[in-house]
Known about the structure:
Elements: E1 4-9, H1 19-25, E2 28-32, H2 41-48, E3 53-56, H3 64-69, E4 75-78, H4 88-94, E5 97-100, H5 106-121, H6 124-132, E6 151-155, H7 159-170, E7 174-178, H8 184-189, E8 193-194, H9 197-203, E9 206-209
Parallel strand pairs: 1-2, 1-3, 3-4, 4-5, 6-7, 6-9, 7-8
Amino acid sequence: MAKWKVVILSGTYGLHVPKAIEMIREVAEVTRGKIPKDITPEKMAEAIGDADIVVLGASGRIDEEVMKRVPKLKMIAKRGVGLDNIDLKAATKAGILVTYTKHANSQSVAEHTIGLILTLTKNITIANEEVRTKGWKIRSKLIGIELSGKTLGIIGFGFIGRKVAEIAKALGMNVLVYDPYVPVDVVRGFGCRVVDLDTLLRESDVVSIHAALTKETYHMI
Length: 221
């Protein structure tokens, strides 16, 4: 029986954990492709070729036009959690299975989010540049602010949003949440307060967005 063909269209997939690709090679023929600079349905279909499975990252888009051009495609494996670059309705119609890596990067993204908040509120980047160029006099202007007692507004209370809330609460922050799809009791269980979007934007010192990109959330800010 011939092995299935897998094409990897994610530049970073397997770089940090080579064993992932080794495991796939045990049961399938694996090739690493490239997302075309000119991302048209024709170019995307050409990159996928006659593969049975495609591993897709954040770049590139597989929509109905692409699917029509790759009749052998049986599965789209998304490296990440966002599915906005895959036409799910078209995939369902075509019988193509779509998977994603649930929880894979939630903790890392949450920690990075808090790191960015600290960088901005403590003026770390500016201070670093000044220290390197011996601009000592500006240090009195880069005091920054303490996050404890401040209010963080989180838009989108999925796995990442919840982890951000946990870390923010540990820092002593008050947390407001806007997510019409998450039950109020769930939000309150994290010690956060449910509010509408206008209230969140009005009362928050810092706003962090963790909502999926959809027609509903496009240009919401």
